[in-house]
Structure formats: C-alpha cells, structure tokens
Amino acid sequence: MKSKFVVAIIGFFICQITLAQVKFEAEVSRTTIGVNERLRVDFKMNQDGDNFNPPNFTNFTVVGGPYQSISNSWINGKRTYQKSYGYYLQPNARGKFTIGQAEILIEGKTYKTTPININVVAAVDTPTDGNNAEIIASQSIHLVTKVSNENPYLNEGISVEYILYVSPDINVSQWRPVDNPKFADFWSENIDISRLDVKDGTYLGEPYRYVALRKTILYPQKTGKLTIEPLTLSVSVEVPSDRRDIFGRRLYETVQKRISASTKEIEVKPLPQTGKPANFTGAVGSFNFSVTTNKQSLDATESLEAKVKVSGNGNLMLFQLPKLSLPASLEVYEPEHIEDTRTNNNGVFGSITDTYTIVPQQKGKYPIEPVNFSYFDVNSESYKVLSSKELMINVENGPVASVPNNSTASTSNKQEVISKGNQFRYIQLDANLKPIGEKGFFKSLWFWLLILLPLLAIPLTILFGKKRKERLNDVAGNRVKKADKLAKKYLSEAKKNIGNPSAFYLALEKSLHNFLKAKLSIQTSEMSKDRIKVILREKGIKEMTINDFIQLLQNCEMARYSPSSQASMEQDYEKAAQVLSSIDKDL
C-alpha cells in the first residue's frame, strides 16, 4: 500500500513537470521550394518570453514579417497559450541552406530552436504557397488601365480609367498612390470622383468586385504612337489566415501590397488635309459659334461690349477664337478672355468667350462684318465652318466725321440772322443819384472792383474754354491718358489675383498692352511681337529689356493652355514691374 502511494506521488510530479515544460520550436511551410517561390517560417512558444532574437537568414531575403500572433484559450478548464513570430523568405539562389537558431528568454532561461535544412531547387512553372498571404494577395487584386479610344485624332479627347479589381475572398482597407502617371504628350484634365462606387463584375471569367479609382480626360498633342503611363498604388490587403479566434471566426492578416496598372499605347491619327479651312486653329469636337453685342444704339464716347463665343464639347482650351473685324474709327481694347468649362466622362464641355470693349468717337453707323469659325467634327470626320451674322452699331449723338469739302459744308450749315429792329435801346447816362454820406459805396474801392471783375472774368472764361476744347479734341492725348490709367489698374489687378492663373495672366496682358498704348502710342492692330521689338529698338530700349517684355507676353499667351504655379506668377509679376519701370526710365 505504501509503495502504491509513493508511485502515485512520483507520477503526479512527473505530470506537473511535463505540463510545465517550455516549448520553443521552428516550423516551415515546406522544406523543398523552387528558387522563384517563397517560404514561411514560424517560431512558436507555449509560454511568453522576452528578447526574441531571430536568426540571420543567410542565403534568404526577408520579404515579409515579422508577423506576431498570440493565441490564449481555455478548453475544459485547461489553458492553452501560444505565441509565434512569422517571416516570409525568398531564396537568393539554388542549393541546400540552413535556417539557423532563434533565441528567446523565458523565466530567466535562454531557449533555442533547432536548425532546419531547406532544399532550394530550380524555378517552377507555377509558384504556389498556400500559407503565403502575399501570394494570395497578388492573385486576388489587380489594377487595370481602360482607354476609351486607342486610335483617336490629334486633339480628340479620350478618357482613361484606372480600375481596381478585388476578389471576394479578401478585403482592401486603404490605398494610396505611389507613382502618378505623367502625361507628357497630352493635355490632361482629371475628373473629380466624390464617392467611390463599388460594383460587382468579372475579371478573367471569375467573380470580382471593382471600383474606378481615377478618371482622366486626355487630348493628344502629337501624332503617332504615344504611351499612357501606369498608375502605381500601395494597398493594404486583408487576407484570411488559418487561425481563428475563441469564437471560431477566421482571423485576417494584413499585407501591404504594391500594384501597378499596365502601360497602354495608342496610335494618334493626324487631322486630314483635305477640306481644311484656311482659318482653322486646331478646334476638334462639336461646337456652336456666335457674335453678339449688348447694345445696338449708343452715343459717342459711350462703350459697348461685343462677345465672340464658342460653346460645346471638345478641346476648348487648346485653340484661339477668331478676331473681330471692326472699322478703324472705333476705339477697341484688348478682349477679356473668359473660360467657363467643366469635365465629365465625355470630355471637356462649356464655353470660351472673348469680350471686346468698343468706344465709338463719332456719330454714324458702323458694321461688324461676319466672322467665320472652323472646327473638325470627329463624328462626321470632316471640317465644318460656322459664320456669325453681320451686326450694325448705330451711334446716334456725337461729333460728325469731317467732310472733304469743308467750305461747302460750312456754308450750308450757316443760318441767316434776321433783324427784328429796335434791338438796341438808349441808356440814360444821368442817373440823378445822390450820395449817401461822405463815405458811401458809390465810387468806392469795392464799387470799382465789382465793376471790373465781370470784365476780367470774360477773357478768363474764353481762355479756359479754349483749353477745355483742346483737351476734348485731343483724341490721341486722351487715349494715352486713359491707357496709362488702365495699365496701372490692370497691373494692380494682376497682383491681387496671384494664385489664380487665368485672372492673373489676363490682367497682366492687359497691363502690358495698355502700357504700350500710353508710352509708345502703339495701337491694338500694331501689337505683334515683331512690331513691338522694332518700335522698342527705335526708342533706344535695351535689348535685354525688350527680350524680357516679349517673354512676358509669351508667358501670358501660354498660360491659357498650360497650368502655372504661384511661384511662377509671383516671378512674372516682379519681372513685369521691373521691365515697365526700365522702359519708362529709358524713355
């Protein structure tokens, strides 16, 4: 009986020692892999420890990890604990290699794993690894580039979509762009996507969910083969693992995956030469054209606005509007360019307008001749020409234009003066006035001053009237003064609009043109770059200053077709102020 008791006690202590035994082991997904496959290794322990130290993984590259997991459960009153550190390894070459020992400190004692031999063979045709979350993610998520038209005309709008396909077996928690495509040979306009719309579909015959992450409208600026660069994303992918929580639900493992869309090539066709109008400036799409004025009748020196407007769908920002043909006797200012456009899946649509301010100086009727606008219609693949109606400006009141035979005209305008008789009456000279006291007002200093002041005012009034008339008749001088004020006004307006490229460069261009009108008496019709250079050289302006002035004009023109940063606008404003000051000083 005593011996049985001793045996029971010894057995009890052996069980306790066995239950309390620490386990620290290394496990691999496979011991033989291809050189193009990946290997998962897990270092597991049944008690929590400190100072975990993995091996060096010689001859392998760590492509994932460490991934730490902890499992703590109670079954029938028995506690089970497991903690592991996992790594994904990529072999560097073929051969037989060893995964060395890992170390950990548990309750003050150091434990080590047993080394594991791995045989790396030649590359396999279809690399697989059921336990590799990264491989599962690679096979379950795809980024695709979709182009609406791979054979467009020059300047014809096409849409590019970057679509993300995700397998129902995984989840995507977040994504961010790593490398955005640069459309060097295109004019591009992004479409704002306010909310991502997830839809069900198929990819390579398998059910997938998909979402359009980015949409862009492109207008090719060159003919021939052009490349559409891919979009690269960093995506957080949640992949189901073999582990489950205490309620039996499958646990997910998050993998950071980098994916890229495919590169696309398109063939851009040139616009046909047959039937191409002489005034064609590159408009491609479907458009309407009109020329309107806000007044039909007005008085001299009043102003009216004439609008040249193109509306529709196409490359609205990539061509120039036709110029108005106006009589030389009308004062015309540089047009104000307004762009009212929006972008959707069909391209850019809206309108562009040039608004001319016209000031007639004399009475009469002035015609605005019809203006032609041509564009290439991609639907019919032919050129179309639109014409405006002839408009008439009726100036009702104002000075009449001079007539060649002045003597005849002046004679006909004279009217005969009819005498009515008894026009002059005698003035009684003896007023029979009596003095009031010794120092009365009569014949005093104030008396003579009041008598003489009206007589002195007559020549002064005549003199001031002549000066005023000269100023009113000095049309050229008035234009110079008005242009000088406008130059300062628009330069100040440009400074206020730094940050808004369209408004800034429009105001800056108006300031430069009005400066030329004020200082050099250059009219709008003479404002070509070559003519400006010639006149500035004749005035003795430095060549460097002339080049800077011409460069500013070119920047104003290019700003209509390409985006500008705030730094470039600030630089152009400072250069404009310096150049105008230098020209003014040289003059």
TrEMBL record:
Residues that span the membrane, as ranges: 445-464
Leader peptide range in chain numbering: 1-20
InterPro entries per the UniProt record, alphabetical: BatD
Highest taxon listed in the record's lineage: Bacteria
Keywords assigned by UniProt, alphabetized: Membrane, Signal, Transmembrane, Transmembrane helix
Name this polypeptide is given: Oxygen tolerance protein BatD
